[in-house]
From TrEMBL:
CDD domains per UniProt: HATPase_Hsp90-like (cd16927)
Entry keywords, A to Z: ATP-binding, Chaperone, Nucleotide-binding
InterPro entries: HATPase_C_sf, HSP90_C, Hsp90_fam, Hsp90_N, Ribosomal_Su5_D2-typ_SF
Domain of life per record: Bacteria
NCBIfam families registered for this protein in UniProt: PRK05218.1
Protein name: Molecular chaperone HtpG
Pfam families assigned: HATPase_c_3 (PF13589), HSP90 (PF00183)
Gene Ontology terms for molecular function: ATP binding; ATP hydrolysis activity; ATP-dependent protein folding chaperone; unfolded protein binding
Keyword Transport: no
Sequence similarity: Belongs to the heat shock protein 90 family.
Amino acid sequence: MIQEKGSLSIHTENIFPIIKKWLYSEKDIFIRELISNSADAISKLKKLAAMGEARLEDDFRPRIEVIVDKEKQTLSINDNGIGMTDEEVRKYINQIAFSGAKDFIEKYHGKTDDQQIIGHFGLGFYSSFMVSERVSIDTLSYREGAEAVHWESSGDTEYAMEPSDRRERGTLVTLKLDKDSQEFLDTWKLREIVKKYFEFLPYEIFLKEIPEKDQGKEKTETPINDTNPLWLKNPKDCTDEEYRKFYHQVFTDFNDPLFWIHINMDYPFNMKGIIYFPRLRHEFDTVQGKIKLYYNQVFVADNIKEVIPEFLLMLKGCLDCPDLPLNVSRSFLQNEGYVQKISAHITKKVADKLQLLFKKDREGYNKYWDDIHPFVKFGCMREDKFYDRVSDIIVYKTIHDKYVTLDEYLEPQKGKEEKRVYYVSDTRQQAQYIKMFKDNNLDAVILNSLIDPHFIGFMESRLDKVKFVCIDADIAGAIRDEGREPEEKEKKDLLEKAEKLFREAASRDNLKVSVESLKNETMPAIILLDEQSRRFREMSKTFGNTINPDLFPVEETLVLNLSNPLIRDIIRLYEDQDKKSDALFAAGYVYDLAVLNHKQLDPERMAKFIEKSNELLRRMTKTEAQSA
Ligand SMILES: Nc1ncnc2c1ncn2[C@@H]1O[C@H](COP(=O)(O)OP(=O)(O)OP(=O)(O)O)[C@@H](O)[C@H]1O
């Protein structure tokens, strides 16, 4: 060919500043575009060879090179793919690539949300001008008798074409980086970017620096990428060690995952990947999950909510979905039937895995539960289908350190019209109540994590005639000793007197008081909290009200235990004018102890309580000393 100069058919001057600005936050996408082009060029060549339309060398190995020349300030991408003839350069580069950029701008200009466009930007080759003063191409087509072509442009409307001295089939794109983009000469940074998008590209990528370091030395070349990610391997042939290693490598998490699911399907659509259940160090870790989406082994993005059910984003994994229509907008994806099928399939796979673990290794499943419960609960609340598949294997940790399903927990209440699940929402604050339950051989489950107030509400909405009741709320029914209950008249009389006495002693006119004969004799009184108002307060905490718990006061009832002789004695003392002050002293003390059982006393009350305790000791020793 003879030397040729020309003008590009579009007004690139207008486009240029817009694209540059738009790309500012994601400058490195030009690398993705150029390497993608090289990978496409190799795929096309392989396809043609398979059809018998191109001849490959016997020792052909697909290869992409990223070459840095710090002296010349150039960054080049070289491949041994299909190459281009001069006609093709005219067509694909001069016309298509540049008009592609124009289409792109027309479509997306003004959209501030980069996330509108997934993965493929359609900006292609043109994006190389975002970082370059000048871009050149040296290419030799696979076609027999083709001549190599050199093309060059500075990103304005002018280009130049002439013969090239390239001898090998394939394409070399060289960018003379502009002064604002010198960071792309940093091989460490380049390696990071290439790894981000192409860690699992099926063709080997090599990073080279010119002049080569350690010249003359015998070298073994190692590609930057892993051309055979584990998800492509048949699950039957993968070892646990390989799964763990892959997890460490991809997520740079040194902890081992709990377990994993290998997805490997070809029909009715193509999807491969591995999803891991990470170990949680604390509850808030859950938000740090990561599902990486790939398209034919090229990374697209992390955590695309439109493709992956939201609750699965708490897990970690890689999913390769070559059938995804990735060059479309997110809003379109949401309505795509294919995407819904992917979502449904992953949900089913995860539920199946949990069911399998539960059935085959209940012990192991119980051990995992502390790590996986936020995920399972969140999943149930988010996806009806997931709930339907796992509702029978939701387990609850009990105060006896066992893990039981709801059916197992409710077994002793079989035949009862309304069933109750007693739960602990704070193991420290409710320690006394737990002890009381244990002493009476009763069981309660522990639901003390952030998600649990929501989960309890959710479960009640799903279950007919099952109520969740906190261990410090309305439990008198569970621990009442029916055999010891006094006559109704006597009980009414006692209640009237006790109400008067304890309201006066606690200085609270509206204190709710009840009298019961409890199975447990040791405790004179306990405080019960109204379940509804307590739940309201818990919920307000999860919505950020941690500052003032008194904003939502919780209704309390002081339950006096008639099985403990102290209560009747105090009531009797109260009726004796001479002993009234002693009765008030003792009643106030009993009340304070009951309150202390489930929460801290406010500072003023605490100071008084200590004063009273000291007085009590003094009274005790004084009587002892007098009688001695
Ligand atoms: N390394 C290469 N080897 C062979 N042909 C190439 C190479 N790079 C670009 N081309 C040709 O130039 C065309 C335009 O490239 P460009 O990157 O602008 O768009 P695209 O790859 O077709 O689309 P998009 O990047 O939007 O997915 C390509 O379709 C291809 O035919």
